[in-house]
């Protein structure tokens, strides 16, 4: 009996286990202290307090995560854009860590599913996605330190989204890049709409890009053109990897 | 002969050796690649270029150092001020990394002595001190990584200068704190002016604070009152350590 007791007291609750697995999948490594990640998704409306009576919510971690993100992107740009002066680096960074971009990153990871709040989640504005993306980075720093933050940002921000040419405005359209590449490689491409509906009066288009009858990327946006461009961007990054492997 | 040759080719130039030692003393650890530190003190007026033709000057490192400083201070405040919300943390950080404060830090380390420039150093404005303090942090990041940045900022910024009570405005005057402590400890204190002159039309006072006939701190400022307060602040931090040891 005592052995059973030991096992049970040490095992996580079922709920924690599910959260642990979901967070691990997003991070790409195991959390050490799950509390950090719980804090990252705790809204102030819960009025949670630490044992010392200090408020616990994601806003402090957001401050921390914002700082870590800025540093990691600064170091990345410093190395990757050796031609750029201080003004250039500052401008590029603010494009990468723009509110709009952070919201997109948070949304893509569906972080909002983890939020604990007394206020209904649909009452939050758009910025909630970016805010909890930053608080998640803060939690990673608290849990595992700077190197893990760097690794996470590399995987979730830099590799899939950061393209210096695009940020510089040199790439006008990813769709044209994809088409150009397909023509050069003698591949057949096709954009088709797999979804067309309206949520809360907002029209939403889902576009699928296939190359040689294989689906390469999907994206949703408020216009067909935007969805095509988004899918093309995703395809472009996927193709880039392929092209590099050659 | 070949042995001699080997020794000589491996040894640093005399000039580099002096610079290496001076930098090591400031950092508290040995530089790995001295070029990083040379870049941190290179003014754009020299028009230096890398082998790839990219401009080399301290401005890019300043961008990097600014980011690292913000992160390290953010993490410090996150831990040390668990009662503070996001707004509080943001405000405290901006006080610590204020232009004025960074200039003071750069000046105290006399970093300006290392600047290489075509423009005479006295033509630079006051901000040069803070700018090269930041570029030095950027160089540390490039040379040794985040942990060494953290160590340097801990030693050169946080330990000697960061006092949350003071930043919160709770401490009105360090002079009154010092006097209070001396009275409680039955110690005799004395502020005396050891210097009173004018440079470029700017009056400068040097004040020395002694406690029980031992000089505890010295400071220079543009008024007697300011110099006394500065010396008191330095003494306060020195005394704090003593008081903690009790």
Task: Describe, in plain words, how this protein is organized in 3D.
- Chains A, B: Its main location: cytoplasm.
- Chains A, B: Belongs to the ribonuclease III family.
- The structure is a homodimer of 246-residue chains.
- Chain A has 246 residues and is of the alpha+beta class.
- Chain A has two domains: 13-162, Ribonuclease iii, N-terminal Endonuclease Domain, Chain A (Orthogonal Bundle), CATH 1.10.1520.10; 174-245, Double Stranded RNA Binding Domain (2-Layer Sandwich), CATH 3.30.160.
- Chain A is built from eleven helices and five strands; from the N terminus they run αααββαααααααβββα.
- Chain A has helices at residues 2-10, 14-27, 34-40, 58-80, 86-96, 99-108, 128-144, 146-161, 164-167, 174-184, 224-245, and strands spanning 48-49, 55-56, 189-199, 202-211, 214-221.
- In chain A, the strands form two sheets. A three-stranded antiparallel sheet of chain A has the order 3-4-5, with helices on one face. Chain A has a two-stranded antiparallel sheet with strand order 1-2.
- In chain A, a hairpin with a 2-residue loop joins strand 4 (202-211) and strand 5.
- Chain A is globular and about 65 Å long.
- The model of chain A is unreliable at 1-9 (pLDDT under 50).
- The A-B interface holds A 50, 52, 54-55, 59-60, 62-64, 66-68, 70-71, 74-75, 78, 82-86, 89-90, 138, 141-142, 146-147 and B 50, 52, 54-55, 59-60, 62-64, 66-68, 70-71, 74-75, 78, 82-86, 89-90, 138, 141-142, 146-147.
């Amino acid at each position: 009996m005592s052995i059973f007791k030991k096992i049970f007291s040490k095992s996580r609750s079922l709920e924690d286990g599910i959260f642990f697995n979901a967070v691990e999948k997003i991070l790409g490594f195991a959390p050490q202290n799950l509390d950090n990640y719980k804090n990252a998704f705790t809204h102030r409306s819960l009025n949670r307090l630490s044992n010392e009576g200090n408020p616990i919510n994601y806003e402090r971690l957001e401050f921390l995560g914002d700082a870590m993100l800025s540093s990691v992107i600064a170091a990345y740009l410093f190395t990757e854009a050796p031609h750029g002066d201080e003004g250039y680096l500052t401008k590029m960074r603010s494009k990468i860590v723009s509110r709009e971009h952070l919201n997109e990153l948070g949304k893509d990871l569906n972080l909002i599913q983890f939020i604990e709040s007394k206020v209904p989640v649909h009452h939050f504005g758009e910025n909630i996605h970016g805010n909890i993306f930053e608080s998640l980075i803060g939690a990673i720093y608290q849990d595992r330190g700077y190197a893990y933050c760097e690794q996470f940002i590399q995987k979730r921000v830099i590799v899939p989204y950061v393209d210096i040419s695009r940020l510089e405005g040199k790439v006008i359209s990813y769709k044209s890049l994809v088409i150009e590449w397909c023509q050069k490689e003698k591949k057949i491409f096709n954009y088709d709409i797999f979804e067309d509906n309206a949520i809360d009066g907002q029209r939403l288009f889902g576009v699928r890009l296939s190359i040689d009858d294989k689906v390469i990327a999907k994206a949703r946006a408020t216009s067909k053109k935007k969805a095509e461009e988004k899918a093309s961007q995703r395809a472009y990054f996927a193709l880039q990897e392929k092209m590099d492997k050659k």
